[in-house]
Specification:
By secondary structure, the chain is mainly α. The chain has three helices and no strands. The model has no long low-confidence stretch (mean pLDDT 86). It comes from Methanorbis furvi.
């Protein structure tokens, strides 16, 4: 797996980021409440949630675009059905004249 190989390679160096104070407070509160063992676990859970939510949002956005496409195709289908009915009516008229 490419993702796992990249993850193992990146884990050799510790990663550090400067967080806003309000986020640090929330992190420490989550650990102090016993919900998480350490701040690393909180950050990992938050990032997992973020990426899962991001994927879900993308799917929802794609679904909305597909719904628009379906509505447009349904409208085009209705127009084509009306045109087909008109042509069939014209054929009947022409055939009755024979």
């Amino acid at each position: 797996m490419i993702v796992m190989a990249a993850a193992k390679r990146l884990c050799k160096k510790p990663t550090s980021y400067k967080l806003p104070v309000d986020i640090e407070v929330l992190l420490h509160n989550a650990v102090e409440s016993g919900e998480y063992n350490n701040t690393s676990d909180v950050i990992t859970a938050a990032l997992r949630f973020f990426f899962q939510h991001k994927d879900i949002k993308q799917v929802k956005d794609d679904m909305e675009l597909l719904k628009v496409d379906i509505r447009e195709l349904n409208m085009m289908n209705q127009i084509l059905e009306r045109q087909m009915a008109d042509l069939e009516a014209q054929i009947k008229v022409l055939q009755s004249r024979r």
